[in-house]
Write a structure and sequence with these properties.
The chain has 161 residues and is of the alpha+beta class. It folds into two domains: 63 residues, Wheat Germ Agglutinin (Isolectin 2), domain 1, CATH 3.30.60; 62 residues, 2-Layer Sandwich (Wheat Germ Agglutinin (Isolectin 2), domain 1). It has two helices and ten strands, in the order E-E-H-E-E-E-E-E-H-E-E-E. A hairpin with a 4-residue loop joins strand 9 and strand 10. This is Agrin. It comes from Chelydra serpentina. InterPro entries: Fol_N, Kazal_dom, Kazal_dom_sf, Prot_Inhib_GrowthFact_Antg.
C-alpha cells in the first residue's frame, strides 16, 4: 500500500568480510552481518552457536586464538591464521599517527598497524605537521616535509644589527 510503512531487510548492507559464524540452524554464515540479514528475511531468531564455520561439530581452531593489531582469525587448511582484512572507505579524513605519519583516515591507520604488526595510535585529527620545528627563517617544503632555507631574499631598507 502506498504511504504505509513496511519492514524491509534491504537496508542491511554487509561488508563481505569472511569472519564465519556457525548458527544454531547448523548453517555457516560468512559473517555475523549475513546471519542477522537471514534473521530479518526469515523473521526468526538465529542464535550464534560459535564463531567459525560449522564443520562436522568440531569447534573452529580460531576459538583458542586471539589475533592482535586488529587482525581477524580465519581458518585455512584447518589451521587458525590471523589476517588483516580491513576494508577502508575511500573518504579522506586525515589523522596523525603516533609514528608521526599522516594517514588518510583512522581506518587506514588501523590497517597499516595490522600489516606492520605495530601499535599505532591516533595522535591527533588532521595531518601531521612535519615542519613544526623549522627555525632561523627556514620554510617548510611541502613535498618532502623538510625545513629549507629560502632561495630568494626580499630586499629591505631596514638596518640589520
Amino acid at each position: 500500500r502506498r504511504g504505509a510503512p513496511r519492514c524491509s531487510c534491504d537496508r542491511i548492507a554487509c561488508d563481505g568480510a569472511y569472519r564465519p559464524v556457525c548458527a544454531r540452524d547448523s548453517r555457516t554464515y560468512s559473517n555475523d552481518c549475513e546471519r542477522q540479514k537471514a534473521e530479518c528475511q526469515q523473521k526468526a531468531a538465529i542464535p550464534v552457536k560459535h564463531e567459525g564455520p560449522c564443520d562436522l561439530g568440531m569447534p573452529s581452531p580460531c576459538l583458542s586464538v586471539e589475533c592482535t593489531f586488529g587482525a581477524t582469525c580465519v581458518v585455512k587448511n584447518g589451521e587458525a591464521v590471523c589476517e588483516c582484512q580491513q576494508v577502508c572507505p575511500s573518504r579522506y579524513d586525515p589523522v596523525c599517527g603516533s609514528d608521526n605519519r599522516t594517514y588518510g583516515s583512522p581506518c587506514e591507520l588501523d590497517a597499516m598497524a595490522c600489516v606492520l604488526r605495530q601499535e599505532i595510535k591516533v595522535k591527533h585529527k588532521g595531518p601531521c605537521d612535519r615542519c613544526s620545528k623549522c627555525q632561523f627563517g627556514a620554510i617548510c617544503e611541502a613535498e618532502t616535509g623538510r625545513c629549507v632555507c629560502p632561495t630568494e631574499c626580499v630586499s629591505s631598507s631596514q638596518p640589520v644589527c
